[in-house]
Amino acid sequence: MAGRIVAVTDGDTVKLLDADRKQHVVRLGGIDAPERGQPFGSAAKENLSRLVFDKRVEARCWKVDQFRREICSVFAAQRDVGLTMVRDGYAWHFKRFADEQSPEERVEYARAEDEARGAKRGLWRDQDPVPPWDWRRTRAR
To answer: Any catalytic annotation for residue 27?
Structure first.
């Protein structure tokens, strides 16, 4: 599916307007970005906005999650946006769902996270960054 990004909700969720003017809530597959209210949450949203807001993208979707978001790989100018978010240090490779990625993508995303961590890019500047899945769990109590 192709369209234009009309909103960026957070560091891993966008709204895509397709050619039929239908809006889709798209969750970038393969990554998990810091939540709003979490350290680097705003920075992750800003980085994703810079990459996709008001730009034409292609979304390759494979499922719908429990929140009715379409889980997709998103490409802007043939560039994998999720991989870029990990490489820039504004998202984790979401290894819990790595089996949904191709073997090549799993390796690429894992390598990108290792490189960002080693270079202390983005959230990796924090001495002890808390993964969003752990942060959400502590808020659910």
So the answer is: yes
